[in-house]
Amino acid sequence: MKIAICQINTVVGDLGNNKQKIIDWYKKAEADGADLVIFPELCLVGYPPLDLVEKKEFRDAALSAAKEVASITKSTGLIFGSICEGDNQAGTDIHNSAFLCYNGKIQFIQHKSLIPNYDVFDEMRYFDPSREVLVHEFKGEKLGISICEDIWNDEDYWYKRRYVNDPIQDLLKKGAALLVNISASPYGYGKREDRKKMLSVLTRKDKLSLAYVCCSGAQTDLIFDGASMCFDSKGNLVALGKTFQEDYFIWDTAVPAKPITRVEGSFEEEVLNALIYGVREYSFKMNLPKVILGLSGGIDSALVAYIAVRALGKENVHVVLMPSIYSSAGSIDDSLNLIKNLGITYDEVPITPVFDSVLKTLDPVFGDLPEGLTEENIQARIRGLYLMALSNKYGYLLLTTGNKSEMGVGYCTLYGDMCGGLAVIADVYKTDIYRIANYINMERKIIPQNIIDKAPSAELKPRQTDQDFLPPYEILDKILRMYLEENKEEKEISEIMGETELVNKVLRLVDRNEFKRKQAAPALRVSRKAFGFGRRYPIVQGWRR
Fold first, then answer.
1. Is 148 considered catalytic here?
2. Is the pLDDT assigned to residue 545 strictly greater than 70?
3. pTM of the complete model
4. Is 112 an active-site residue?
5. Residue 270 contacts residue 263 (beta carbons within 8 Å)
6. Active-site annotation holds for 518
7. Model pLDDT for residues 205-230, shown as the tens digit of each residue
8. What is the distance of C-alpha 501 from the center of its chain?
């Protein structure tokens, strides 16, 4: 069977354009002689549709669009994902479904069986699980159609399974000879390799082929890397879609192909490409083609500026230098060198006059209280005011430049450096920022070496460095990884680190600053556990005082 893999990028809720893209790509595959054309999970409505699913008008429009898509089909089969509503009075009776169409009609619908409710997934809020799985015979092949999570529960791969039942095994018992899985699987570094290993085990064990199609694109903070995969009955990966872009290819199940072994690049390459893709997607889908950010002379803002240029082109990136009396000459010079290397435009707007005026105005209220964090935050908030004003005046998308380490412990200022529409590197630890910067400079020195070498500092008071308040980032990031991503607690982390008081301080900072993260811009997700929708902790709590 010749199977066309259509790894498309759709927009949530844009039924008209999504529908047309499915029709156009189907016609192309039909002209290329495909027997079956496969599109990703929920591609007609976009993933994730969230509370749009609760709108009756939206559900009706989605069904109407699905019927329109089906009406143009001929003998070539078409599988795509959308929502489907029944007439059962129990549960939501709304389903995440795969539609199989040919000869002008929707011929078969398979609902998703395993409904995820963890990390960034909240599908139980909207969808009921399938009551059964069925095999559909098409052109002599017995198709076993499943949707994303349905294939992530193989008992021979997972030490501990999340679900009791395995819909794939149910399909095999009913005679499925060719597996099809349509997916919208969010990106996280390392996940693609896990996916390849898991699907290889499944197809080798059960001795049948698999076509797995994943969407590309980004939806707010979620990045979808594509990399659709086809496996032969020996467990070999024999076809692989492009990453971080749309792709189309035809896989002939009857033609042997050379196994593909490498599916993932280095951490630096992968994460950098993901962030570039995420910025480009957010800017395009929000119709905000130009971006602005504050350039401090530090490594974080330097990396964000580079990513923005790679994503949108240098003509669409503008930066602002906002020096104060505490800004070093080196930071200004380093920023100007980076601006030259990137070929971008800039403004320099000092904050000192406004800062002095604010202090003078507040002096009668502050009285004899000593200067400290309040005055530092005022500086950050003046910069946030400048950037938001320029964003409003010129229609720029403001990018924030804080990293995951800072966000984790609250080393950031609400309504100051946290102002913005998109947090580009808020899921990247500080130590990894340095790794990526050095990777960028391997071919050409774009980020000035002074920016990489100097001690990180917010420059909000004389001779300030981040380590005045925080442990060295190598230590901090190790603690944060264990707490945020490995779910380890204080005792276990302290035993590993050999330091109880420091660990307790860091964990308290993480817990205490949840209120800041709740108000932060959406952060592009590149790890297995990012701040935002995938990590939900209470602001008011008494677990660790």
1. yes
2. no
3. 0.96
4. yes
5. no
6. no
7. 999 999 999 999 999 999 999 999 99
8. 34
